[in-house]
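User: Quick sanity check before I run a bigger batch. Here is a single chain. Can you write out its predicted 3D structure?
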Amino acid sequence: VQLVESGGGVVQPGGSLRLSCAHSGFSMNDYALLWFRQAPGKGREGVSCINGRDGSTVYADSVKGRFAISRDVARSTVSMDITYLKPEDTAVYYCAVNEFRLCVLSDPQVNDYWGQGTQVTVSS
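Assistant: Done. Predicted structure follows.
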């Protein structure tokens, strides 16, 4: 299993970004794919999840309405669109895979594979 995130960068408050997670070594239909983030000095926070089988999604309350996770099965990619960025969104964003298709945002430990992360910085 390999996960490679991309799309991070420096954005002004109110701006938008699309993060992508290219995955290989497994079938998306069998797993759930999640996005977590980790701000400096803080723990890893789950923000979104998509069930690979039925495409259902889960979001943390802190990002509902601003984050949107989606999948492109043909391209083996899961993306997350982030709008109305705030300084508190500054973090390293990671994608993760759960082999049991569990969308558990509260516990990073239940996930099986992780990417290396991509930095998002929101600053004027």
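The mean pLDDT is 95.

User: Great, the batch can go ahead then.
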